[in-house]
Amino acid sequence: MLKVIGELRGFVNIDEQVLMSEVFQHIPRTKFVFCLAGTVTATEAVLQRLGELAAQGFVFGVDEAMADAESLQKLIPLAEVIRFDLHKRTREELVQLTSQSHFANKKLLIDNVDTLAQFDACLALGFDYFQGFHFARPTIVPNRQLAPSQLAIIDIIALITSDADSVEIEERIKRDVSLGLNLLRLVNTAAVGTHRIDSLRQALMVLGRKQLASWLQVMLYAQAEENAPSVKPLLMLATARGKLLELIAQRHRPGNRGIADAAFTVGIMSLMDALFGLPMVEILKQIAVVEEVSDALLVHQGYYGDLLALIEAIERRDALALLPMLGKFHLDSGDLFLLQAEAYEWSNNVARAMHQ
């Protein structure tokens, strides 16, 4: 579990059975917030257990919309985080609720934040934590200007896809010293494991052009404006998507490296409209991809479109859409969990490498 969340703090939903179990003996106190399910009732045993664990340093959250209002009032003093649901509350209700005295000195979490406008509104209300994919929704910005470093990377990707001479590609990367160093750090941290790469020429030889282009696409997320609050979450989500799609493709179509590479590209590029504030069709005019990848990114069609639909259903926790897709790729929930854990661990390594 620690490998999945990396340096971040995890929020874990638990019920009464988990609360009363001995699992807390094996969990770090400071890495998680344990959010009590709405079905938890504030019995004497539950309150005693919460008090004991809180005294040991464990942090708990409660849902302000618990069905049993009396239980909520008893649980609030033992909780540090209060969770609200934007799908269940209007802005006016949130204004009234968050100003109540018994929520004072608590950390406020808002769930189901779907747009940047909602994020801004909740931030203004004083919320501390935000759950949702608001950062991954594209907000089209007219006349958007990309950062010079992003334009440089796109130019290099264009050289690679146009079969330019390797010496020309290497020289173009060398023009930007920080780009070259970051690229070598990234591929050594997350791409090739024990096979250390010490030069750009070696990177081209060992990785090959397709994989090098994929790593440059990853770097686009790290070259965005540093003051953009959504950049790091986008980097982590895009790399997790790319790796998970690659792992699923490898499992479903073993021995076909080309399919796995294309699946990785689909995952990485699937959030570039949110990154750049541009329609995906405009991005694909600048970053050339094969038709099957383009079809997946634009209209969710074909093999890679199905893979992208699968991972989006996972993120939405949409069981109705997810179950038939798992069957299509011959996966069960256990398989998916293991692949997700590997993808998230890998994504954390990438994010750490990009922010050293």
Q: Over the alpha carbons, how many angstroms does the gyration radius reach?
A: 23 Å
Annotation, overall tally of beta strands: 6
Order of helices and strands: HEHEHEHEHEHEHHHHHHHHHHHH
Total number of helices: 18
- Secondary structural class: alpha/beta
* Largest β sheet strand count, sense and barrel closure: 6 strands, parallel
Q: Compute the average pLDDT.
A: 86
Low-confidence region ranges: none
Instruction: Give the CA-CA distance, first to last residue.
Output: 23 Å
In what order do the strands lie side by side in the largest sheet? Answer: 1-2-3-4-5-6
Strand percentage, roughly? 5-15%
What characteristic shape results from the CA principal axes? elongated
Helix content estimate: 55-70%
Structure at a glance:
This protein has helices at 2-5, 16-19, 44-55, 69-75, 91-98, 116-124, 148-161, 166-174, 177-191, 200-222, 231-252, 257-269, 272-276, 280-286, 291-299, 302-316, 319-328, 333-354; strands at 10-14, 32-36, 59-63, 81-85, 107-111, 129-130. The protein has 356 residues and is of the alpha/beta class. Helix 15 packs parallel to helix 16 (302-316) and helix 16 runs antiparallel to helix 17 (319-328).
Give the secondary structure arrangement, pairings included.
Blueprint: H1 2-5, E1 10-14, H2 16-19, E2 32-36, H3 44-55, E3 59-63, H4 69-75, E4 81-85, H5 91-98, E5 107-111, H6 116-124, E6 129-130, H7 148-161, H8 166-174, H9 177-191, H10 200-222, H11 231-252, H12 257-269, H13 272-276, H14 280-286, H15 291-299, H16 302-316, H17 319-328, H18 333-354
Parallel strand pairs: 1-2, 2-3, 3-4, 4-5, 5-6
Helix pairs in contact: 7-8, 7-10, 9-10, 9-18, 10-12, 11-12, 11-18, 12-15, 12-16, 15-16, 16-17
